[in-house]
Amino acid sequence: MGCNAHNPLRQEALHATSSFTPRQRLSAPFRQGLTTRGLAWAVGIPRHLKVYPVGVKLIWPVAGRGRPRKRHIPDILSRAAEDMLANAKWQNVSWRNGTKGRLEARFAAVRVRTADGPPQRIKDMGQQHLPGGEAWLIGEHRTSGEKKYYLANLPANTKLRALAATIKARWICEQAHQQLKEELGLDHFEGRSWQGLHRHALMTMIAYAFLQHRRLAQAGRKKKNQRPTATAEFAGRAPRYRRTHSSTTKSAMPILQKTNQRKTAA
Question: Which of 121, 137, 156, 158 is the most exposed place for a label (fewest CB within 10 A)?
């Protein structure tokens, strides 16, 4: 990510090969660092994480007594993510095919501003974080009754299905991360330099890509060989084209030419 040696974001990014840890999901500097570098992210959050409506504004507070206030405060208080999506429009969304059919759940998404700005005393609420950057707040209601909440910095015109597919792509990343560690030794590096770790991770990913290519090619061959062959049912069907067969009936005998009777008598 092009981080400095003493940048704390770089130390966390060493472990963010394919997914975020719970500490990184709640780390505002980490998310802000990814956004600054132009990277898209989608993270799971607890239901009580505070967010602001997208239309929040900073105003000057009216001092009832004492000196005039010198810092802005938001005109709307932050709310929990669960409460922000309470009146949202929920839709059934399917993101991909699974082994047992289509995978789907109910999703809702609204644009919010994360409450990860500088801390500021707001009225009688004590120290509260000011509004930060815009993001998508996404809720998921699974068929099992479980509820999940996410934040994503994808563009404002992103469709709900694309948001759901981006969130659910994390399972693929975690599966790849697990295979890289268990099968190819991604976590076996014992060096201390960023360059050495980068080379080790690169070699394991090249090996993983090669094995995936071989696996997909072999699966394609098996699928091709499992196609149904011609059976008696197919053979008994009427042909779609006209066959040309040689006629088995005998053709009429050619008429013998009449010979000259005079030449025969001679």
Answer: 156
> Given this model, what pLDDT does residue 66 score?
63
- Strands, E assignment, the chain: 42-45, 50-53, 58-59, 73-74, 79-80, 91-98, 101-114, 119-121, 127-129, 134-141, 147-152
∠161-151-167 over CA atoms, to 5°? 40
Burial grade of 55 (CB within 10 A; 0-12, 13-18, 19 or more): exposed
Q: What residues form DSSP beta bridges with 44?
A: 150
Global pTM reads: 0.62
Q: Tell me how crowded residue 2 is: count the other CB atoms within 10 A of its CB.
A: 6
Domain boundaries, the chain: 17-61+70-158, 169-219
On whether the CB atoms of residues 186 and 17 are closer than 8 A, the answer is yes
**Secondary structure (H, E, C), 119-132:** EEECCCCCEEECCC
In angstroms, the CA 118 to CA 40 distance is: 23
Lowest mean pLDDT among 69-78, 96-105, 246-255: 246-255
Task: Name the band, by pLDDT with cuts 50, 70 and 90, for residue 85.
Answer: very high
